[in-house]
Amino acid sequence: MTSYDYDLFTIGAGSGGVRASRVSSAYGAKVAVAEEYRVGGTCVIRGCVPKKLLVYGAHFAEDLQDAKRFGWDVGTPKFDWVTLRDNVMADVDRINKAYTETLENHKVEVILDRAVVKGPHELELASGRTVTAGKILVAPGAWPIVPDVPGAEYGITSNEVFHLDALPRRVVIAGGGYIANEFAGIFHGFGSHVTIVNRSDTILRGYDEQIRDRLLQISMTKGIEFRFNAPFEKIEKLDDGSLKIFMAGCEPIIADCLLFATGRKPKTEGLGLENAGVALDKQGAVIVDEDNRSNVESIYAVGDVTNRVQLTPIAIREGQAFADSVFGKKPTRVDYTNIPSAVFSTPPIAGVGMTEGQARNKLGSIKVYQSDFRPMKNVLAGRNERSLYKMIVDAVTEKVVGLHMIGPDAPEILQAAAVAVKAGLTKQAFDDTVALHPSMAEELVLLR
Ligand SMILES: Cc1cc2nc3c(=O)[nH]c(=O)nc-3n(C[C@H](O)[C@H](O)[C@H](O)COP(=O)(O)OP(=O)(O)OC[C@H]3O[C@@H](n4cnc5c(N)ncnc54)[C@H](O)[C@@H]3O)c2cc1C
Ligand SMILES: NC(=O)c1ccc[n+]([C@@H]2O[C@H](COP(=O)([O-])OP(=O)(O)OC[C@H]3O[C@@H](n4cnc5c(N)ncnc54)[C@H](O)[C@@H]3O)[C@@H](O)[C@H]2O)c1
To answer: What range(s) does the Pyridine nucleotide-disulphide oxidoreductase dimerisation domain occupy (predicted)?
Structure first.
């Protein structure tokens, strides 16, 4: 028997790596995890958590405006970016500490250092120390993609956006996906002028078309500007520090901040995986089988680095499945069907299952039910913003195969409704459920 320093060495203490390390250790494995930045990973440190707190912060803009119609005199509200930024960062520190303590309480050795792979069982830390492990789990996440155009270095990514010294007056956001639409709502709420620049004419590819269109229409009504089919040509820095952004097909835009939200690629560059012969795909993702195992027997990978579904709950499930299967003697595979997801735009979008288009292509015969309504709070507030809920039903089995919504609290409502879709319930099961009145969610059981 070869003896190794550790049974498991995990690269990356993010959503997937933390779960896998903690659970493997609980099963009795000797585990170490290397983290080159901060324990918690993207979601906790510079993703889901601080982003959602900024969304809450920005929402006060509309709430304070609407409050007047509900009888409140709130004077002239003033927003202070530095206060919110520092409070959010303090909360991130708190969670970072809690994650570290959880790992240590589970006897996982936390090594704050960069690790690279040297062979199927060998790694090297930036400090120069070499370690060996029976199994290596690659969980380094993904990294923002920045388009290769002159002056791109003047832009920032989601890595930097949480730390801005001051609130920019004019923001250009490149991309039309999750991060672009979420930060458009955030900056607009804080009072910045926002322009989204996208190279195609579609935002949020993969979401239901009508729901995306509704977000676009609401965002434009709010004053967020869009430039479509506008690939970047160059970015220049002007004498006053502002940026002049040149795109094909439209006039240049002057802005104080350019945020690239143009996708994320697996973080495998310089990771040394070639030293062990680990196969990567064209995007640099580790190719794994259903059990998260690479082509090298001792090397596994979970989370964004595998480029399957870039969401935290999926990375966590993959980490758990790895630990259960490899150290817990409980072979487990992640079920990738009916994954609910949300865009924390203003208002938010949430969806589960097939979109109308996908269902038509796959099933042929479908029924679509929808409710297009103005939430009662918006009516009294005089806010002309309508919600849209769509239910996609298989016409043969009557099962609900998709639910898609845009409107206040859509992610909160959808999480509960996703249980019904996952369980394969029919439209009749929704109809049989008594409405909870008055709520927005009741629209789901009143669809005719
Ligand atoms: C702005 C933003 C908002 C997001 N919002 C949401 C959301 O609302 N909901 C959602 O579900 N998902 C969201 N995501 C996606 C989510 O953050 C990721 O899917 C998730 O964090 C992936 O987990 P992971 O374990 O694969 O990697 P990560 O959480 O990225 O963790 C990887 C860790 O590995 C470390 N690392 C990398 N290389 C090395 C090395 N060589 N040595 C040591 N350490 C290394 C990194 O520093 C990092 O801490 C968001 C992402 C971003 C960028
Ligand atoms: N709420 C959430 O769950 C959430 C929030 C943020 C991020 N995430 C995860 O992080 C991932 C990365 O987010 P993202 O918004 O960066 O990626 P994304 O894949 O959602 O969107 C990328 C966008 O950038 C556009 N684009 C690509 N190259 C471009 C270029 N050169 N110029 C202009 N536009 C360009 C694409 O057309 C697309 O609209 C997401 O795929 C998602 O899985 C999830």
So the answer is: 339-445
Query: What pLDDT, in 10s, does the model give residues 304-343?
Result: 999 999 999 999 999 999 999 999 999 999 999 999 999 9
Which residue has a Cα nearest atom 31 of ligand 2?
A: 147
Residue 399, strand partner residues: 426
Q: Tell which atom from ligand 2 comes closest to the C-alpha of 342.
A: 1
The rounded Å distance from CA 35 to ligand 2 centre is 25
Residue whose CA is at the smallest distance from ligand 2 atom 25:
175
Query: Which segments of 147-281 does DSSP mark as H helices, in order?
Result: 158-161, 178-190, 209-222, 273-276
92 touches 50 (CB < 8 A) = yes
Ligand 1 near 141 CB (within 6 A): yes
Helix 15-26 to helix 312-326 angle (10° resolution) is 30
Catalytic residue among 59, 121, 188, 437: 437
ipTM of the complex as predicted: 0.98
Q: Which atom of ligand 2 is nearest to the CA of 181?
A: 15
Domain of 67 in residue numbering reads as 6-143+265-326
**pLDDT of the residue at 81:** 98
- Are 86 and 210 members of one domain? no
437 tagged catalytic? yes
Q: What is the pLDDT of residues 9-31, one digit of tens each?
A: 999 999 999 999 999 999 999 99
pLDDT at 1: 61
Does one domain contain both 246 and 272?
A: no
- Tell me if 48 CB under 6 Å of ligand 1: yes
Pocket residue to mutate for ligand 1, from 42, 143, 343, most atoms within 8 A of Cβ: 42
- 254 found inside a domain: yes
User: How many whole angstroms from 7 Cα to the centroid of ligand 2?
Assistant: 36
Q: How many domains does the chain have?
A: 3
The average confidence (pLDDT) of the chain is 97
Cβ neighbourhood burial of 240 (10 Å; 0-12, 13-18, 19+): exposed
CATH number at residue 230: 3.50.50.60
155 is in an annotated binding site: no
Q: Is 143 in the pocket of ligand 2 (CB under 6 A)?
A: no
CA-nearest residue for atom 30, ligand 1, is 141
Cα–Cα distances in angstroms (integers) from residue 429 to residues 42, 216, 423, in the given order:
39, 32, 11
Alpha-carbon torsion, ordered 156, 157, 159, 161, to 10 deg: 60
The overall pTM is greater than 0.95: yes
Closest ligand 2 atom, residue 232 Cα: 32
Beta bridge partners of 137: 10, 300
Percent of the chain with pLDDT strictly greater than 90: 99
Spans in the chain with pLDDT lower than 70: 1
